[in-house]
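Morning!

As promised:
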Amino acid sequence: MAEPTTQSRWQRFLDNDVTWSFLHTPSAIVAACVTVIAVSAALAAPWIAPYDPFDPSQISLWDGKLPPAWVEGGSSAYLLGTDNQGRDMLSTILYGGRLSIVVGFVAVFLGMLLGVTLGVISGYLGGKVDAIIMRFADVQLTIPGILLAILINGIGRAILPIDMRDDFAIYVVIIAIGLTDWPQFARVARGATMVEAQKEYVQSARVIGLPGWLIMIRHILPNTLRPILVIATIGLALAVIAEATLSFLGQGIPPTTPSLGTLIRVGNEYLFSGLWWITLFPGIALVVLVFAVNLLGDWMRDALNPKLR
Amino acid sequence: MAAVSAISFSLFNFVGDPVNNMVGQDATREQRVEIRQQLGLDDPVLTQYTRFIGNVLQGDFGLSYRIKRPVSTLILERLPATLELVFVSALIALVVGIGLGVYTGIKRDTWVSRIVMAVSLIGVSLPTFIIGIALIYLFAVHLRWLPSSGRSGTIDLGFWKTSLLSVDGWRAIVLPAITLSLFQLTMILRLVRAEMLEVMRADYIKFARARGLAERTIYFVHALRNTLVPVITVIGLNIGGLIAYSVITETVFQWPGTGLMFIQAVDFVDVPIMAAYLIFVALLFVVINLIVDILYFVVDPRIRLGGS
């Protein structure tokens, strides 16, 4: 009996508008493939990377600054060359990409959690609570995100004692980006909640005496998720850029556990000596990742059409 | 707005221990206490805060913890560099953005328009610092046409060191300005294009055509004018964005402006500079918003009539 139901679910999935739109948008398919490949390659870094860039026994300074394999002087042992410390570029990019993606995901999730919670509460309760929360969101939206992230990050680093800064840098970056993100989520969640709260099922839930928090979590929240998913996708691209920017400015993740931004920053110092590959490959990785996620977000916005703009 | 910014600055007073950053590792306890008293850090928070606000209103942001010079002088020294950079890149973004936006809006199906739109999509995805690095590599390292960093050829006008009056100065400002403008340029381009597509379908454009007006007149007098209200709003916000992103651009190009100063201040937990920079940015935002509101009046006669 189980099989027919799964079949029909599969059928329903194929008949879905969103699926149809996806299968008929080449750029979305390509973007989704690139994103999935990039994310899985990065997550599988410990298994597929040819070297472990954090294992000193596998690194030798003699192999430092080698160009990519196809350039004269390159070694076939290091496909994309090595950085100044003799670490294999391909491996560091995979590991760096993993860090960037994880930081991006967690930061967006944090922003989403905070923003959606406040947004739903704000939209459901209305009145003074709404006014206060939304005033905060509006004020924060007038300050450009990256400036705020630098600021929160700077404060976070300043609170920590100097010897703990590097160890906690990742968490500080995540919190900084998450705190920068939330107003977007709050706005969308609030808008969707206000629409949903007028509908009959919410009214009837209220009539049977369900407490407000239960209505918010169980009834309203699931119906606000579509537009929030769109914001989250675009937010992921922005978060990855924000992390890379912070790291590039030397405010983010330390060179001992490099992210893509840190790799680009290190490579930038060697650009003038002609060691272009230390910057170029992490740069390409970052741009491709962000571009693919952006395309995916663009398509989702059109397909789910939550009238965001 | 002012209230909120004031709250955020008072937060700074709780953050970090500047003394640790000022004195060396081997400073004695007595030296530390002495410095704390000099800076007034032992006073109650409220006293510190009132003193801070009082001083700020007189244009005094205190001494930088690190360089031990008045913050207001430091900012004023570096302000021209940032403002010139923002000005030049805003100019690039506006002229090129509106120009290409109008073009792609009118001739939407030519291959030039398609290429412009594809490139603009990439432009949105490219992080500012990557654009900067790419431009440095191409024009400074590879082709050796332009200097890679710093600000040269400045001419001192007494109160304002400008780099816009000499060839060297322009050579130095070109790359950072393009870097800074690119993101805003693509935003303006896409917006103007969308608005133009909308406006060109309107009846009064058909009427203007029927009257036999020249295409150029229709595009620039009738169509563009009606796209301006949303465009001005976005441009106003975007100039704020330019100031924020100037932090990144100035770091990439080692441009000696306020953004670079801010990043260095964050590095050293130089609270007075951080606070002053924030007040300065908040002030700029208020000014920009004011200008945008005034421009609405100029551009849209309906607002003018509605107000009176």
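The beta strands of chain B are 155-156, 161-162.

Hope this helps with the figure draft.
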